[in-house]
Queue: 3 jobs
Job 1
Amino acid sequence: MKKIKQLANKINIPGAISLLSLLSAWTAILLLLSNELRLSVVMAVIAFLLDAADGLAARKLELESEFGRQLDSFIDIINYSLLSALVIWKEIIPGALGAIVGFIVIITGILRLAAFNQEGCITKKGITYYRGLIVCHMSLIAFIFLLISRFVQLPEILIALFISLFALLQLSDIKTRKSGALLFWAPVAILIGIVGFLWL
């Protein structure tokens, strides 16, 4: 009981938002596997918005912690890497090739998050950068290829190569600017949800 109380204190409000984000992503996965793609995209967008909100809450309430950062990274594996991999395997490249590409997305995402937890960000001239593509970019890339696959018939091997390349870029040294611009990303995410619901 004492351990549970200690854990609850560590989770606090930002952690609770993170767990709601995880619940949304889990719901998106269940909907995807139940062939409810449109609703799955909507729940994935909600998961993203909650994931963005937890960091904002932690900063505003001054509740940032190492535990919170680790929790957020573990949840990101489900919210972005696993969900993207399942979308790739089920909707974009069904079959063995899609399973392989999905695994590449998952393993590169896990390695990227593990490295980030150890190394952190890069700051140059007052600007903060992530190392490599970040895992939520893989969700965006998967969504773009999902839309493309609905309107254009591309060879599966070509799609597999492109997605695998983007996945590997998560482990690269390219700099991705860290942006807290929720005023930009929140409307973009909502637009993705609307597009997904109407056109998928």
Note: Residues 2-199 form a domain with the Four Helix Bundle (Hemerythrin (Met), subunit A) fold (CATH 1.20.120.1760).
Job 2
Amino acid sequence: MKKAWAVLLTIVVGSCAKQERQQSQADSATASTTVALTATTTKKTQLELPHAMGTALDQFAPSFEPFSPAEYSRDVVPDSASWLTNTPYQAKGDFNGDGLPDLALNGHDSTRELLIVLLSQPDSTYRVYPLKNIGRQPTYNHDVTLPLSAAPPGYELSAPPPHPERLPHGGIVVNYPPPTSAVFYWNGSSFVQFFGGD
């Protein structure tokens, strides 16, 4: 009988030790995730732009920075994985149909919040088109809640004239809280905004 109790006690103690090890490993994994997220959210967003895009941006707003993870709402950027996957501060596409890449960016300089498009020109340079230009909001009173995404060519607007039914070259989608979004598209001379549902 004593031997049976000894075996049972060994099993119970061993099981408790195993659970403690598993909990410790889980805590370590959680701590690693938290550290990685903290490191990501405190870091500035670095832009790597082609030379022609960089030149246009420097001429328009030399101190421009995209919004960082720390400036976005947790509804948009809940963790580091979502930030790296979605890059909500930018939308890439060919917005004017010339076969060259264009880029929309959401960020700020020292005095303004800026939603801009770096659009390719016929001479292979780029020009900045501001879609939003407002005074810089205080960080203690502001979370960025509007992620950007690209609308592909053929994107359906379901819009009345004079808007096209479908976008010939794609566009930029600014995602407001559902069910509203705004789509900016190039009409040949300027960007036009259309508000619609998702």
Note: The chain has three helices and nine strands.
Job 3
Amino acid sequence: MPDWVFLQEVLNVKFGDEFLLHQAFVHRSYLNESARYSLSSNERLEFLGDALLGFVVAEGLYNQIPALGEGQMTKCRAALVNRDCLARVAGSFRLGEYLYLGQGEEKSGGRHKLRNLACVLEALIGAVLVDQGYLIAKDLVWRLLDREFKRMMDEGVETDYKTRLQEVAQAMQRGTPSYRVVDAIGPNHNKKFTVDVAVEGEVLGRGMGQSKQSAEKKAAQEALEKLLTY
């Protein structure tokens, strides 16, 4: 039997109506084989959670990363709310173990299907919104996505900082940014680079990283934020 008390403790959310929590995990296949079951499927909650998820992530990107343009924000939002990302998050919280599945879906590995995991995460967010309101649901979204958000920042978003910096510098008629390695310390297998980026000869940003590329991205972020506050 699923331990619903434990799940609420892990999520740091205490449901007032625990039936909503259960409903978030009801796959339609279960209802096909359990006509007497009192709850409906999680699809309406999934719809609600999907809408909230997209808004909360968009709002967070807008407020937390002012250097991002509309195109970059769209890409970042897509990276955080796509099926694979949501399934990874659901898997890390072992949400598949709580699913109510029909026998056929169970036998076909339904607890590990990416679609089922992504959908149940959205349904859970929708259930929290209905039961606890927007602020608690918003807080839950960011706690759930925290690791994926940080990973995206480390591996993907900064790539756009260099492009965005170049776009902004050229739009301001300040030419093309130039990067210079000012320091590289440590053994070859664990070297740390420090890179400066200059616009019209003025150093506007400095970044450090395990590679020249990552150091350049961080330098570009700092420079972009300075340019946008001028």
Note: Strands lie at 178-185, 192-199, 202-209.
